């Protein structure tokens, strides 16, 4: 919906909620239990289970501080999003708010960029999931990738309730794995059982070369990996249009961000680095696998493989969900093909989800043909694409707050504490991460791709605007 549409039908979401449908045609079928687990699971992915190994080798124990500071920034972003969501809960939230508070072109870029982010992420995750399957079975990875994609595609077309239930259990596996690891490490540190009992000590956090073994610069260079681990935390905003009670459930989910990060990232890393010295971790090896090996627990590798398989499938499942909604939001605003507006009888976006799933399969083939550094490059591009959504959330919240404080718009019932200063701080932090990506030769390629993508979007926007001169979606603010 454009701002004009919102003004014409402001009461639409409330009226629709009574019969279980949102004002956008979706079914409000996601309950509090599912929203909470989607919010928790969104912050836990392969970036933690696998990517942390490379980050530990670069930063040492100071990675804990990097996750803590970045986690604070993520909380500022989520509270900014929460303020916007309570002002107007819609499924295409990021592009909707960018369109309303920045301009139609910003909404266009945000919607298509966030769609691309999830397509690219889905490509890497379904390919990774297929590789994890080879741990147990000797079937070709492309067969597993095809089966996973078809199953998740089917799940997302059945109903949003089925998607939410599957994501609930995916998240439950990830949460259980991390809590289990924390408890095991705590037992080793206090009781001293397992092979790691004799050497385990919290002194490993500062005794092996210091807390900053590679200096502050080494810690800063891990920020891209750290921020990638948090990508998808904003997914809870996409569920706004399909939540049974968004104004009650979403604030509670967003307010769990601090303890989620404190437990699942800071807490888990403190425990693991106390049991296993940081010098024993290697890039490309999961810190969870390394910790299990150090403990002498033979089942560790199989357990971690199951967890990372779950994390990859969870991410791909989220990608299927969000891409269809983003394409439909763009189409409803005249900024995408009209075919994307079609919904199934159960209220799921048929064409948008189908097109996105098909592109994910093409990506699987590309990764199969050209392996090697593909994952590193894709991770970098996904990071810059995902951070664009965060930037738009923050800028939109700053502009919304300015209008609300002047009485032009109604105040949100969930105001971001410390805003707009916290939002400005978060924007500056993201800017620093982008600078660090420019310095890192592996991540730099994403900054080369970004202008090309911007050019494609710019030309597409001009063409669409010329073909639809009377469309309000292309009118200035």
In words, what does this structure look like?
- It is globular and about 75 Å long.
- It is an all-alpha fold and 477 residues long.
- It has 21 helices and no strands.
- The chain starts with a helix and ends in a 10-residue tail after the last helix.
The shape, in one word, is globular
Low-confidence stretches: 1-20
Instruction: Compute the number of helices.
Output: 21
How many strands in all? 0
The radius of gyration computed from the alpha-carbon positions, rounded to a whole number of angstroms, is 22 Å
Terminal CA distance:
14 Å
Structural class determined from secondary elements: mainly alpha
Content of β-strand: under 5%
The largest β sheet comes out as:
none
Q: Any chance you could write out the topology, listing elements then pairs?
A:
Layout: H1 3-8, H2 12-17, H3 32-42, H4 46-49, H5 51-59, H6 63-87, H7 93-101, H8 104-133, H9 141-158, H10 160-190, H11 204-207, H12 215-220, H13 223-230, H14 246-254, H15 257-275, H16 287-295, H17 300-332, H18 350-369, H19 374-405, H20 421-439, H21 444-467
């Amino acid at each position: 919906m454009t701002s004009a549409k919102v003004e014409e039908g402001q009461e639409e979401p409330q009226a629709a909620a009574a019969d279980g449908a949102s004002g956008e045609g979706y079914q409000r079928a996601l309950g509090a239990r599912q929203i909470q687990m989607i919010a928790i699971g969104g912050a836990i992915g392969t970036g933690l289970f696998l990517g942390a190994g490379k980050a530990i080798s670069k930063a040492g124990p100071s990675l804990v501080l990097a996750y803590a500071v970045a986690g604070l920034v993520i909380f500022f972003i989520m509270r900014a999003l929460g303020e916007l969501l309570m002002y107007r809960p819609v499924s295409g939230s990021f592009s909707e708010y960018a369109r309303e508070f920045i301009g139609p072109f910003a909404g266009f870029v945000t919607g298509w960029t966030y769609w691309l982010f999830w397509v690219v992420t889905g490509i890497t995750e379904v390919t990774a999931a297929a590789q994890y399957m080879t741990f147990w079975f000797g079937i070709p990875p492309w067969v597993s990738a095809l089966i996973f994609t078809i199953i998740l595609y089917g799940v997302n077309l059945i109903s949003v309730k089925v998607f939410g239930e599957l994501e609930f259990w995916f998240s439950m596996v990830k949460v259980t794995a991390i809590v289990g690891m924390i408890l095991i490490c705590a037992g080793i540190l206090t009781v001293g059982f397992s092979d790691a009992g004799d050497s385990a000590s919290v002194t490993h956090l500062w005794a092996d070369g210091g807390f900053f073994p590679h200096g502050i610069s080494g810690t800063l260079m891990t920020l891209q990996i750290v921020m990638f681990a948090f990508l998808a935390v904003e997914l809870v905003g996409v569920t706004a249009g399909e939540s049974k009670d968004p104004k009650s459930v979403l604030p509670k989910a967003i307010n769990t961000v601090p303890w989620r990060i404190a437990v699942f990232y800071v807490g888990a890393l403190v425990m693991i680095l106390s049991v296993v010295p940081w010098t024993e971790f290697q890039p490309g090896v999961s810190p969870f696998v390394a910790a299990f090996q150090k403990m002498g627990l033979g089942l560790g590798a199989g357990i971690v493989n199951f967890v990372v398989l779950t994390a990859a499938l969870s991410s791909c499942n989220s990608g299927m969900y969000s891409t269809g909604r983003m394409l439909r939001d763009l189409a409803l605003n005249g900024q995408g093909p009209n075919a994307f507006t079609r919904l199934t009888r159960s209220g799921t976006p048929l064409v948008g989800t189908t097109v996105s799933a098909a592109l994910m399969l093409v990506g699987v083939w590309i990764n199969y043909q050209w392996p090697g550094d593909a994952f590193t490059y894709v991770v970098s591009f996904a990071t810059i694409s995902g951070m664009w959504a965060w930037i738009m959330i923050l800028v939109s919240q700053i502009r919304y707050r300015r209008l609300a404080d002047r009485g032009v718009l109604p105040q949100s019932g969930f105001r971001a504490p410390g805003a707009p200063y916290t939002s400005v701080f978060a924007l500056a932090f993201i800017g620093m991460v982008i600078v660090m990506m420019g310095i890192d030769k592996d991540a730099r390629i994403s900054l080369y791709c970004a202008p090309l993508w911007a050019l494609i979007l710019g030309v597409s926007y001009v063409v669409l605007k010329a073909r639809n001169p009377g469309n309000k979606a292309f009118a200035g603010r």
